[in-house]
Amino acid sequence: MAIKKDTKKSVVILAVVSFIVSLEIGVIKGFSVLLPTLKEQLSSQTWIIGSSISIIYGWGYSLGLSASALQKRFGARFCIMASGMVSSVGLIVCAFANDVTVLLLGLLLLGFMLLQENIAIGTIPEYFDKYYNTAVNVYCFGTAIAIMISPSITQFLLDIYGWRGTMLLLCGINMHSIPLGALFDSREDTKRTNDYKIVPLGTNQSQAGVLRRFMNLLEAFDFDMIRTLPFVARIIIPGIVYGYTFAAWLIYIVSFALSNGSSMKEASVVATTGGIGLAIIRIALPYLNTLLPYRQLMYISSVSMTLSMVLHTVISSVLGMCLSSMIYGISIGMLGSEIYVAARDISNEDQYVNAVAWFHLVDGFAMISGATISVAAEMCTKVLQEQTSNKLDSSRRSSVEYISRAKLSV
Predict the structure, then answer these.
(1) What does the pLDDT read at residue 191?
(2) CA–CA separation, 159 vs 58, rounded Å?
């Protein structure tokens, strides 16, 4: 029996999807607050911890490619509940980590949270038709709330319970996704039937079953989709821009504010203003979508996002960083929402999960490169600053020696 769309059950599912998406972004944003503490406690460098955190996206979103096949085989209910359990175990491993290697293992398990997100988002077209765009903006609004409150909540928990206790509490919150996953419907084609399959004479039935499942898995990936120009122009390229800049802001904004002389509370405020910008644009997007097509909104968001990144490099005051962070939150929120709208526009209901999975895959690997390049640029800047200061010191010493010699000669 087909799932009825735009019903009260759809609203409940939308609330669950919003919680799952908000939880994922909130946990990752919380790691940005924990980054300085993890660097100190694990005796490691910022770029090692930061790159490890960004690997969550590359690994987690690469799992998203199997989201369609897993959902067709086991159903959204089972996949979301199982992913929630594995990601919770990952947070427990992170809480008991004594070095970066164990932390990385926990983060790899935590990456299943992104598989859970991918499957949850992929169910939206199954429950919404007429109000699909509104549903996208509603669950994306959850990310704005998460970014807005997660830095302050994580800092509060860190001050009281320490970083290990904070991760265990995050694990407890994350485990709520396990019972919530039971609210999703199981797909009818995942149920066992008594129908007989015709197998060619001389073929082992078990081998035919394995081969059939393998071929179904390959077909579920839908590689033909990424070869079309509209998909590359509206999903792949914007996904690279989105992921490349999002990692630098999401993971390193707190460390960046601290390096400019801000306190930890001020750095948390800077991160929170980005969430405020996200909340503003999520509220305004349904109205903006009636005025402009999504392609123009994607172009506008890309330009404003570039402007905010430039402002980050030239502004060091707390107020200026808050302003650029808010501009960035507005821009990234607009671009992220419109990519999902574009995925729905260029794909049908069965292809939507794959379209989102390919976007998340590109987004994840762009985040890894963005995080690595941003830290490399920061390290190069520090080296240049040290070299410049050393040259200035040597020139000052030479000037003092020259003046002293001139005085002695006189």
Answers:
(1) 46
(2) 30
